Amino acid sequence: MTGTDFLAPENPEQGRLAAHGFGQRRFGAVNWLGLQTLFAKEVRRYLKVSFQTIFAPLISTLLFLLVFIQAMGGRAAVNGVPYIEFLAPGLVMMAILTNAFANSSSSIIIGKVQGSIVDVLMPPLSAFELVIAFVAGAASRGLLVAIVTIATSAVFMSISGAPMHFSNVLAIIYFATAGALMFAMLGVIGGVWAEKFDQLAAFTNFVITPLTFLSGTFYAIKNLSEPFLTFSLFNPVFYLIDGFRYGFTNVAEAPVITGFAVTMGINLALGWISFRLIKSGYNLKS
Length: 286
Description:
Blueprint: H1 3-7, H2 12-19, H3 32-47, H4 50-72, H5 83-114, H6 118-121, H7 127-159, H8 169-193, H9 197-213, H10 228-233, H11 236-249, H12 256-280
């Protein structure tokens, strides 16, 4: 069989479509091999530097816990929960979000700056498949950080006399996954939008950092004055942290179903935006 025999249309209808520029993918509706390969590339990328991508966030979280245990160990309970038990889930969620965002955004911006992004765009991968691979790879890093951090924090807190509880495992899994996906997609958007590292740093400093720090990680939002209270209520990260914390403490400041609806809606919107950006080739193909 020759190369032309391999490329020949199987029926006249395929030939007619090909003549008008509408090719047919030989591997079906989804390029599973290409999708798996790009996902594996994203995973290997952060595992090669695991001390930086996995263990550094763990050390940062433990240092936060150590400082707050020593400095504020006698602080009154927050919403009926000992402060250290209130704080730990918020720190874990922050680690999830920042690492998921960093993975997808850095992968895209480095590829653009170095010119290697063409190696990702040239294979027969659709925009949907590219988004799935980038987001899944970044989310896996965030969730891996979560597993390592939760396990280590539980031991650390138990030694400190404040054992970590697991009141609702489904809530923990959902909000951890929703947060990882949300910031992985924000990383895709930020990486595509930015043309250089300075712009990505600005996106991080003026969008990501305010969202994560004004979200109730270190405090109950009911103690905030305006306009910070209103900002927190419109901040999707608050619902991620509140729902995630509920999974450990069985206490939430907002209805958990509201957090579920808000995070699901935000993720669907971000997924559509990410797809449209990749599909259009904005800042990628020029």
